[in-house]
Structures are given as structure tokens and as C-alpha cells.
Design a protein that fits this description.
Rossmann fold, alpha/beta, 16% strand, 2 domains, 7-stranded parallel beta sheet, 5-stranded parallel beta sheet
């Protein structure tokens, strides 16, 4: 009796077109995005696993998936996947690094404008019946924006800022030179020169709390911080202290150390603009992410080279 086709398990909700695309391959597709028992019922026979950020692919989970060969993260960051353990088990990990570039870049610019103009409070006040037209906020033009991490998203954000009359600086220890001529500085120098610091770095074990009290203190008084990358890159206790002292004029946060966030004092601070980790959550970005990982899984099924493998040392 012939063996069944490989099973691809969808652990987190993805765009419906991704599942439809997978049906073109020699595989079975099970949508277990409801979680709980649905995931557990099929994990032991899964050949491929699709996740977003909700499912944590731990060593314990991998131990319950003996036939798993490919993990596909429908997004950019893979910090919810134990990549070293997957590598040890000879499981390939792929992601969709380009899917959300435009969406996150647009959100970054939107947050930057809302933050510098100080529009968060007036919007809520006007909806509540207030009509205060006093002088408020600042212009973005003439300011210096510093990017911490200068990958695809930061560079796309820089492209969208071209007509705003800002000076752009960047820090990225993994770039030997800037691909677009932007000045690359040490983190110390970038922080001291930037009136707006926008974080776009990947989270690793080594850079947790990359922006700690000391580094936040190096930013000019009255500057702004934007984080659309990963919450743990910023020490939230130090950030709140800098906001309460007036050292920072404001912060826009799409990500938090714990999600949903638990530090109510930070959320309720009048100069904090919080959003619920939705940088990559546009309809267009999610459709692209789903299609990109579906195509990677189909390539794997056809024994073709993968385009977005995170651990290339693992071969088929």
C-alpha cells in the first residue's frame, strides 16, 4: 500500500490563498490554526509546519514532531522558533523576509509623523468634544533620523522619507558598507546625533535590551524613540523612566517585551503611542507572506533549492 503524501500543518492563521496554493503540490494540508487539540492531533505526522508569531516552536514541540522536515515562518523574525534545535534535528527553517517590507515601512513613517506632531492626544480630545487649536507639535523636516539596524525595512523607510527633508543616519554592525550611501555610524554616535531613533534590528540573545538606560541616556534631550522590530530590544523600565523625566519627548511602540503588554504605566503614559504589533498585518503583507512560504514549501516538496532558508547549513 503506497505511503500517504507529506502533511503540511498550518499552526497559525495565514491568508487563505496560501493553503490554496499548497493544494497544487503533492501533499496533504491541515488547517490547525484553531490551536489546542487541532494542532496536537496532527503534529506527530507533520512534514511541514507553517507558523506566524503565536506558535512557539520550542525544543519540546519539536520533540513531538519526529517527521518534521521544514518549518515555515510566515513573516520576518524567527525568534519564536528554536532555530539551533531545528538545525540539530536537520529541520530546515524558512521565512518570508520581503513580505512585510512595505507595510512596516509605511507604519514607521506614520508613527514618526504622529509622534513628532503630537497628534495622539489631540485626536482623542477632538473625538471627545474638545476643540483646542493652540500651537502644538513639531515638523519632521530638518530633523535627524537614526536607524538602528539597516536592512530592507529601514532602507524602504528611508526611501519614503526622501521628500520630508530629514537627515538619515544608520547603525548596522553586519553591513560593511551602506548600499545607498547613508552614513553608517557606531551605535554610540548614532544615538547622540539622532533626534528620532527608529529600531529595525533582529532580536538575538546578544542584543536583548540593546537600548538600555545608558544608551537611551545618550540620546538628545527631547528626542523620540520608535520600535517596530522586537520589544525586547528596548528596556521598557528605562524607557518609562526617560519619558517620565522628560529626557525623551515621546515613544511609538508597535512591539513590547511581553505581548499583550503588561506595563500599564508605559501604555498609559501621555507621550507613548502604542499599537498592537500590527506592522506586518496589512491585507497585502499577509497575502504575500502566506504565498512566499507556500512557494518555499512547494519547492521543498519538489526537491528544489530554497530561496529564504534561515539555516542553510541544513541540507535536504
Amino acid at each position: 500500500m503506497p505511503s500517504e503524501p507529506p502533511l503540511i500543518l498550518i499552526a497559525d492563521p495565514v491568508d487563505a490563498t496560501a493553503a490554496q496554493q499548497l493544494t497544487r503540490g503533492n501533499c496533504r494540508v491541515v488547517d490547525a490554526s484553531a490551536g489546542g487539540a487541532a494542532l496536537e492531533a496532527h503534529l506527530a505526522e507533520a512534514w511541514g509546519l507553517i507558523v506566524r508569531s503565536r506558535t512557539k516552536v520550542t525544543a519540546e514541540l519539536l520533540g513531538r514532531a519526529p517527521h518534521l522536515r521544514v518549518i515555515a515562518r510566515a513573516g520576518v523574525g524567527v525568534d519564536n522558533i528554536d532555530v539551533p534545535e531545528a538545525t540539530r534535528r536537520r529541520i530546515r527553517v524558512v521565512n518570508a523576509p520581503t513580505a512585510a517590507t512595505q507595510s512596516v515601512a509605511e507604519l514607521t513613517v506614520a508613527l514618526m509623523l504622529l509622534l513628532v506632531r503630537g497628534l495622539y492626544g489631540p485626536i482623542h480630545a477632538t473625538k471627545s468634544g474638545s476643540w483646542n487649536r493652540s500651537t502644538h507639535g513639531h515638523e519632521l523636516a530638518g530633523r535627524t533620523v537614526g536607524f538602528v539596524g539597516y536592512g530592507r525595512i529601514a532602507r524602504e523607510t528611508r526611501n519614503r522619507l526622501r521628500n520630508f527633508g530629514v537627515t538619515v543616519l544608520a547603525h548596522d554592525p553586519f553591513l560593511p558598507s551602506s548600499p545607498d550611501g547613508t552614513a553608517l555610524l557606531s551605535l554610540h554616535e548614532l544615538l547622540s546625533r539622532s533626534e528620532i531613533v527608529s529600531i529595525h534590528a533582529a532580536l538575538t540573545r546578544e542584543n536583548t535590551h540593546l537600548l538600555n538606560a545608558d544608551r537611551i541616556g545618550r540620546m538628545p534631550r527631547g528626542s523620540y524613540l520608535i520600535n517596530v522590530a522586537r520589544g525586547a530590544l528596548v528596556d521598557e523600565v528605562a524607557l518609562l523612566a526617560a519619558l517620565e523625566s522628560g529626557h525623551l519627548a515621546g515613544a511609538a511602540l508597535d512591539v513590547f517585551e511581553v505581548e499583550p503588554p503588561t506595563r500599564t504605566a508605559l501604555l498609559e503614559h501621555p507621550h507613548v503611542l502604542p499599537t498592537p504589533h500590527l506592522g506586518a498585518s496589512t491585507v497585502e503583507a499577509q497575502a504575500r507572506a502566506g504565498m512566499h512560504v507556500a512557494e518555499e514549501l512547494l519547492r521543498a516538496l519538489r526537491h528544489e533549492p530554497l530561496e529564504y532558508q534561515v539555516n542553510p547549513e541544513v541540507k535536504e
